[in-house]
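Dear support,

I submitted the protein below through the web form. The confirmation email said the job was done, but the results page showed an empty box. After a refresh the structure appeared. I'm attaching both so you can tell me whether what I see now is the final result or a partial one.
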Amino acid sequence: MRKSIKLGVSAALALSVSSVAVMADIKVAFIDPLSGPFASTGTNGLHQFEFAADYLINQNGGVLGGQNIEIVAFDNKISPKESLIQLQVAIDQGIRFIAQGNSSGVANAITEAVEKHNKRNPDDRVLFLNYAAVDPALTNDKCNFWHFRFDANADIKMDALTDSIAADEGIKKVYIIGQDYSFGKAVSAAANRFLGEKRPDIEIVGDELHPIGKVKDFTPYSRKIVASGAQAVITGNWGADMLGLGKSIVENGYDGPIYTYYAAGSGITAAFGETGEGVIRLVSEGQINPPVSDAAADYYNAFKAKYPDGNVDQSRITNTIGMLAAAIDAAGTADDVVKIAYELEGMTYDSLWGGQVMMRENDHQAIQNVHIQAHTKEGITFAYDGSEYGVKAIKTIEMASADSESSCNMKRP
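What the results page shows now:
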């Protein structure tokens, strides 16, 4: 049964604080990289989770009449093996909600481990709140009842991204490059499929993968891209790999568009600066520029006051916290994760960043507006990384891929 939840900032502020009691916090484990080459991405994500919990929930009375949400950080060093160790530590500490997003390789390991744990421990179950790992398999063949994805998956984003490419008749050659793991492979497969359907005249002049987090000099890749005559580049790279690849491509003489999933924030926007103008395109959920409301602007300003060097570059994090809080309140418990999961699936939620988020019942894939955004300093209210540059929505696909098929065959408790 579908639920409609309106717990954005305006509704959250309506919660009474007079009944706040001293009660145990509801803990959410944040398992992501806090050291190594992707530490800046993980740390900024952690700050966004902590801020969302405090601003949206805790300072407005908490959940269940007074319980706060506490984010507990665990450094997984971007390693699936380390992630499973940290997952078990979190479970042993009594934490019932696991948030993770970087990377899909880690997410695949966690979702399998959570499913096995919940089968073996029916009185000690946990939920996996996937806020950024977008391998389509996670809500298709590998779906399970305990996994919820709050980001648009790679196929949904590629569908939107290739609409933009297909509309540009000047693009005849495309180069695809990504990190060598499940997500990078999914991006490549989706790009080939959608471009083949929408623009069969486009030639894929390159399609390759590189080791994740290990390439120090992208010059050999960039020279191949330039030599191929590509008029557009598609990459799912993120973190240090996105910055290294993008800057190298531009420095080696490429001046066409680079279509990305994650080329914003965490130092990337400032590093691209002027060189990214007219080049970097980003497909993402959530609209930062222009802000959709005064409430969204107030949230962003408050975040910057607390974290001057940070960015609200993962708006899905506020949706994750808001929807979890709403589900706990609706279930009337923070302990029975089965009840909470049933409240989450089918929920519609008014996002602070515009539009609604609908958690699809059959596969636990969030359906929401997706935007094509441009790296620019023109018309930017909220810049990233202390620079004058940010991303601005130039095209919006409402409730993207809402009727897309899923091969998920979910078994429910």
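Response: this is the final, complete result; the empty box was a page-load delay. The mean pLDDT is 93.
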